[in-house]
Design brief:
The protein is of the alpha/beta class. The chain folds into two domains: about 140 residues, Alpha-Beta Plaits (2-Layer Sandwich), CATH 3.30.70.100; about 260 residues, Alpha-Beta Barrel (TIM Barrel), CATH 3.20.20. Helices cover about 35% and strands about 25% of the residues. A hairpin with a 3-residue loop joins strand 2 and strand 3. It is elongated, with a radius of gyration of 26 Å. It starts with a strand and ends with a strand. The relative contact order is 0.12. The chain binds flavin mononucleotide. Flavin mononucleotide (FMN) binds next to helix 1, strand 3 and helix 2. The site of flavin mononucleotide has 14 residues, from helix 1, strand 3 and helix 2.
Length: about 400
């Protein structure tokens, strides 16, 4: 299928822009063999390249180009399909904005292209070209935090050895820190439910009688508070996941939570209830009065997996939580994806305006953290920093800047 891929990048400081001329010449003859066409625009620092051809050959070539050390911060902007090429008969052409004016570059791009047939239809490819030529591309925020300049060092067991399996409980909890890496600070601990065999939450809930789910869900929170007390989490915050319907269906649920929090030596203000975006949306009207009750007690509320559902933003028009955790799907490989970056930038801007704390979860790569940090996010959760540990808090990896 005819595929068009556009990416943007920045020329590496060691690669002079004059080198682009020979680079593109070589590219042109290789592309002809691969039946790939396209153009490369540059202003001497920023690059925008359009590649078109069969999906397989375009994607294979893009992977090679992405690893090329002559440029950096390579971010894919579009991968789209269409009936015809925009740059037929052009293996690869260079348009240098240092040599010609923006107006002339635009004219010659149009001259070499078959864009006229697309122009009538608000063509996104053409809009990217136009935005680049007119110098209106938003700056790359990720470029400020360079992943190569950071190394990780390990802090062993910040709360000492774990407790081991706890007897006479229907389940266990694994704790995973949420950290502020640049401050070297743990901002909270999330208590993740596990079966007594260490199994996942899904497996644990699947072993329960359906009519007991909400009751058990609520009661198990007492184990999480007891664990926090045993480990001595001090003033740290503790986040627990809860099915919102547990608060609606179990009589006296909020009173139960508050009582358990207090008898385990915690303050309600230290506790954050995490509810997934989808659960929140589906039961919002029923859940609304329980939210008010929780807030009145001082307990915090977080929306988990934000962005995984279909109506996260519209939910924010009705209800603003203390904290939003951006879904791991959005965060995964964010340093490589233009659409993901645009979405996260809008979430950051919206949460800044609303004074909602943002957490990015599922961070596994230092590049993901660097991009998100430079986009303004300060709190992170994920294997890169710390794995969940059964009845304890595991080692934490802290990033350090090395010149
Ligand atoms: C900005 C930039 C654009 C490039 N465009 C192409 C291209 O269109 N076609 C191509 O074959 N190589 C292109 N290259 C070079 C590839 O990254 C790679 O060096 C080349 O395909 C040879 O790879 P190989 O030696 O592994 O076969 C580009 C490199 C850079 C830095």
């Amino acid at each position: 299928m005819l595929t068009t891929l556009i990416y943007r990048s920045q020329l590496h400081p060691s690669c002079k822009s004059a080198q682009l001329v020979s680079l593109v010449e070589q590219a042109r003859s290789r592309n002809t063999g691969l039946n790939i066409t396209g153009i490369l625009l540059s202003d001497g620092r920023e690059i925008l390249q359009i590649l078109e051809g069969s999906e397989e050959s375009v994607v294979n070539l893009f992977h090679k180009i992405r690893d090329d050390k002559r440029h950096c911060n390579v971010v894919e902007l579009i991968r789209d399909y269409g009936p015809r090429r925009r740059f037929e008969n052009v293996g690869m052409l260079l348009f240098d904005l240092q040599v010609k004016s923006a107006k002339d570059v635009l004219q010659s791009v149009l001259h070499y292209s078959k864009l006229e047939s697309y122009l009538a239809s608000d063509d996104r490819v053409f809009k990217f070209i136009q935005t680049f030529i007119t110098g209106k591309m938003p700056p790359q925020s990720g470029a400020m935090f360079d992943a190569d300049k950071w190394t990780l060092s390990r802090e062993n067991l910040p709360f000492g050895e774990g407790i081991g399996l706890i007897a006479n409980q229907s389940c266990q909890f694994a704790l995973q820190p949420i950290v502020e890496p640049t401050e070297g600070k743990i901002s909270s601990l999330e208590a993740l439910i596990r079966g007594n065999d260490g199994g996942s939450p899904e497996h644990f809930f699947s072993t329960l009688d359906q009519d007991k789910i909400y009751e058990v869900d609520l009661q198990t929170k007492a184990y999480a508070f007891a664990l926090a007390e045993k480990l001595g989490i001090g003033g740290h915050k503790l986040a627990v996941n809860l099915l919102p319907m547990s608060l609606v269906n179990v009589p006296g649920a909020v009173e139960f939570l508050v009582h358990q929090i207090k008898i385990h030596g915690l303050q309600p203000e230290q506790v954050i209830i995490e509810v997934t975006e989808n659960e929140m949306i589906s039961g919002f009207n029923k859940f609304n009065s329980a939210i008010k009750q929780l807030r009145a007690e001082g307990i915090g509320l977080a929306i988990d997996d934000f962005g995984s559902g279909y109506a996260g933003l519209s939910l924010l028009t009705r209800f603003q939580p203390d904290k939003i955790k951006i879904d791991r799907e959005i965060v995964c490989d964010i340093h490589l994806s233009g659409p993901k970056q645009a979405i996260v930038k809008s979430i950051v801007s919206c949460c800044t305006d609303l004074e909602i704390t943002l957490v990015a979860e599922g961070i596994e790569k230092i590049e993901e953290w660097c991009w998100l940090e430079s986009a303004g996010i300060r709190r992170f959760q994920g294997f890169l920093f710390a794995r969940p540990q059964l009845n304890g808090v595991g080692d934490i990896n802290w990033p350090h800047f090395s010149r």
